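Please fill in the sequence for the structure shown.

STRUCTURE ENCODING:
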């Protein structure tokens, strides 16, 4: 077998938000690298489709339907989990609104899914001793709210900014346990999250021109960055934010 420092063979990886988009692409790419995948999402149909797409190699794969914002669901999921070698906190939502239209219902929902759910999940995995020594935790953050701002992106940006800060603090605290914490910070990626944004094709083409590579990214391009952070190739990397944005933040 040829040398591959990015191999995930023998590793058990949990991916949240795996029913579509970056989460699905991450699960697929990790399975191609030999990992045994545990995928979770609130959408059972999309999760089943992802499970069907995983590479059938040495790894064994399974799915767990779970609402990450419900404590009882998180506790139930803990009972099904083995000790993990890696975990990708990927589930997220958005709803563009100007600041003057921000409301409690929307912002609390976005914060609950994008920030609080991965924080509580990480905490529960630690308390239940479900993260092995040398494990890698990857958070899907964003350039939005951390490196860039845009009109209407306040609620999403606030949630991702909170997750960014949590990742940094967790990396420092968990280093003594040999557990690494990093994030990927994508620019605009061609997913359902982006497709659901309420702007015209003309606005979309105009926005793409603000990227030096003149396009949006693909889920697989983010997923491969996550593979690196999960693999032993990044064994001396923790507390790092890997920007994957087609050069957007160069301006």
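FILLED IN BY: designer on duty
SEQUENCE:
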């Amino acid at each position: 077998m040829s040398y591959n420092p990015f191999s995930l063979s023998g590793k058990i990886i949990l991916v949240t938000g795996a029913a579509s988009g970056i989460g699905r692409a991450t699960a697929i790419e990790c399975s191609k690298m030999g990992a045994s995948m545990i995928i979770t999402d609130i959408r059972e149909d999309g999760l089943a489709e992802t499970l069907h797409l995983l590479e059938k190699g040495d790894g064994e794969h399974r799915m767990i339907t779970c609402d990450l914002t419900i404590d009882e669901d998180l506790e139930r999921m803990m009972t099904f989990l083995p000790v993990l070698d890696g975990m990708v906190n990927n589930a997220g939502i958005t709803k563009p609104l100007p600041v003057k239209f921000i409301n409690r219902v929307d912002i609390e929902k976005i914060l609950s899914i994008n920030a609080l759910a991965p924080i509580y999940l990480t905490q529960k995995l630690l308390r239940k001793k479900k993260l092995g020594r040398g494990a890698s935790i990857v958070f899907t953050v964003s350039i939005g709210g951390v490196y860039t701002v845009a009109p209407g992106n306040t609620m999403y940006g606030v949630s991702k900014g909170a997750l960014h800060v949590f990742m940094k603090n967790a990396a420092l605290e968990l280093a003594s346990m040999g557990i690494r914490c990093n994030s990927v910070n994508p620019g605009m990626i061609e997913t359902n999250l982006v497709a659901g944004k309420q702007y015209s094709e003309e606005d979309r083409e105009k926005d793409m021109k603000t990227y030096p590579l003149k396009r949006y990214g693909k889920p697989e391009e983010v997923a491969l960055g996550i593979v690196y952070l999960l693999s032993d190739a990044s064994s001396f990397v923790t507390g790092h934010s890997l920007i994957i944005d087609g050069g957007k933040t160069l301006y």
